[in-house]
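Morning, I've got a small favour to ask if you have a moment. The fold is given in discrete form, as structure tokens running alongside the sequence. I'd be grateful if you could look everything over and explain what you see. No rush at all, and the record is pasted right below.
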Amino acid sequence: MNKGIYEVQVQGSFSSAHHLKNYKGKCERVHGHNWKVEIVVWGAELDSEGLLIDFTILKEHLKKVISVLDHRDLNTLLFFREANPTSENICLYIYKKMQSALKKYPVKVKCVTVWENEQKSATYSERIE
């Protein structure tokens, strides 16, 4: 009997502009990024085909979630009127949206990582206690 868990991950990307609120420095001015996003989901049970979740299904859900962010000024979106559009909060936004989108599948979102560029990224995952 298998007592382990499986993880599946996919990546996507979007382009958007933002500026950081209450920040002193060059990022307080409007600027843009070509963001890379990775989502990792996990679960213990495979389906009859031996899949945790089809990569295509996971990728399509991620594509829908990040399409709302693509070619937008993030500061104008409702979520980011309250939350500063930092990389960390972009992770949180995508995490929550993906968690909701995947409710009917036997997976849990483990984490979301967002890269501003090749050298800088942030990750959000729920703390397990």
Q: What stands out?
A: Strands lie at 6-18, 31-43, 72-73, 108-117, 120-124. The mean pLDDT is 95. The longest strand covers residues 6-18.
